[in-house]
Amino acid sequence: MDTALQHLIDQINAAAAQRTPLRIRGGGSKDFYGETPQGELLDTTAYRGIVSYEPSELVVTVRTGTPLAELEAALAEKGQCLAFEPPRFGAAKGTCGGMVAAGLSGPARASVGSVRDYVLGIELVNGRGEQLTFGGQVMKNVAGYDVSRLMVGAMGTLGLLTDISLKVLPVAPAEATLVFELDQASALAQLHRWGAQPVPLNASCWVRDDSAANTPELLFVRLRGAIAAVESACTKMLADVPGCRMDNAQAGADWTACRDLKLPFFNPATAEPMALWRLSVPQTAPVLDLPWPQLVEWHGGQRWLRAPVSAREQLRQAASAVGGSASLFMAASDTATGPKNCFSPLTPAVDHIHRRLKAEFDPAGIFNPGRMYADI
Prior knowledge:
Alpha-Beta Plaits, five-stranded antiparallel sheet, 376 residues, 17 strands, 10 helices, Uridine Diphospho-n-acetylenolpyruvylglucosamine Reductase, domain 3, alpha+beta, single chain, 3 domains
């Protein structure tokens, strides 16, 4: 057995015997996300490396501590990528284990799917120190409960991910970004119309450009696919709505900034610090009547807001009214203490499932306790 993995298992066994909480951490790029991490550090960065990569099979297996940048570089050499565009908040710091544990996807999520859709199999160590394997290296490998995808977004509360198998895709032959000056309601309506047509719509972002003198409201749309399909779509969409085509180099930098929350919207120069809220709603949800600035992604399905923490109930009620939810993505200050109540409360039925799963995978309650909900 790999020495680094054995060290992690030994630490888990010791913690379980003493019921000592463990704080699973890779590069720490997502420490801000969820409730405040607590417990003794379980550092995964020593257990790293690409275990296997078969470009012709579109599958790669990596160790949990592998830097995300390292994986993406290896894929790029073969003209392939992680289609769901995982955010890289800490540049080279983020790890593949953190990517899966957080379950966050980038601008292309609405068209290509989420992290969960690309996880083929995982190996993990549970709270008993047992090494378990779920799934495999092909899509049709699930019989019964899909534990591999259950771990996506679990924030490390159910076990330590050790090895992860992922589906990868070829980089699209062509890409283009179009920009239109539209208010939010018109932008959502137009996105829905285009979504019903055979155009290679890959990502969208609507935002009010407060950095400009007249604060224009802009809709950015990214197209990806075959060269002929992208060029045909550009012609058609620009005929539907007046707009312009961006330079690919500039557009690429802007989409990267959007993915990593580096756009001016996410880092405004304001005197009063505001928390960053993430609202997940149906794409068909109307414009939300809220007094704070918004940035809309995923063809209407993801809406970011800069609002005070005190707006929690107002935001959650607004999201719930259209069939969605609201979460506190990033606190207004790194010095905030105590429970942040980041995620919407669970229904009794879902809460029961969460507790049963936690008890089964982590009977001593040592893995990232309270990272998602204070008492789980």
